[in-house]
TrEMBL record:
It comes from Iconisemion striatum. The gene is IFT80. PANTHER family: OUTER SEGMENT 5, TRIPARTITE MOTIF-CONTAINING PROTEIN 59. Residues 43-85 form the B box-type domain. This is Intraflagellar transport 80 homolog. InterPro entries: Znf_B-box (IPR000315).
Length: 214
């Protein structure tokens, strides 16, 4: 069964060939319209801000950004390596997984080794600090013992010196106090002699006063 169809140009009715629509001649005008419609609907690349209305259709590998043709030939990206954005995307698509794999293997081993080395270094330093602390404690403990003995010896010497001072000065001070008391007694006796009216008593007291005063 052959189905009748109409020609898009002349609208004449023709039969579909046995081999199907592929056997029909290509409608160039219709194809051009379809292609133009497809191009109009495709997203256009953004324009370059430095070079007005020039599309950013190239990827600068060195600066990692989109550029236009003038950027590459006369602009700031002159001589820089370029690539197609989609091609660069596809090429670098596996980079994260490769980097992760390398980090998971080589880097992880290095990090673990470094962590172990740091732990060992820390333990060694802590052991040295503990040893120094023990030596300092022992030194000052010994020094405290020496100072305690020195202090005791000096205090004993000072106590002995204080005893010798007391032994030397206490008798003298005691004798001086006795002399002070005798002096006060003589002054009192002299005052009483002056007030005596009895000649006999006066002469006796004067004799006694003279003997004590001499």
């Amino acid at each position: 069964l052959r189905l009748p169809i109409k020609c898009p140009n002349c609208r004449s009715v023709v039969e579909l060939p046995p081999t199907g629509v592929d056997a029909l001649p290509t409608n160039v005008s219709l194809r051009a319209i379809i292609e133009k419609y497809q191009m109009d609907n495709e997203p256009r690349p953004p324009s370059c801000q430095e070079h007005h209305r020039h599309p950013l259709n190239m990827y600068c590998i060195q600066d990692r950004q989109l550029i236009c043709g003038l950027c590459l030939t006369v602009g700031q990206h002159q001589g820089h390596p370029i690539d197609d954005l989609q091609a660069a995307f596809i090429r670098e698509k596996q980079t994260p997984s490769l980097l992760l794999a390398r980090l998971s293997e080589q880097r992880w081993a290095q990090v673990c080794e470094l962590a172990e080395q740091l732990d060992q270094d820390k333990a060694r330093c802590e052991a040295l600090v503990r040893q120094d602390r023990q030596e300092v404690d022992q030194f000052f403990h010994l020094l405290e013992g020496i100072l305690a003995r020195k202090k005791h010896a000096y205090l004993e010497a000072l106590d002995k010196a204080a005893a010798e001072v007391s032994l030397a000065y206490d008798p003298l001070i005691h004798r001086v106090k006795e002399l002070q008391e005798e002096q006060l007694d003589l002054v009192s006796l002299g005052s009483s002699v002056e007030d005596e009216d009895s000649p006999l008593v006066f002469l006796e007291q004067v004799h006694s006063f003279r003997e004590r005063g001499d």
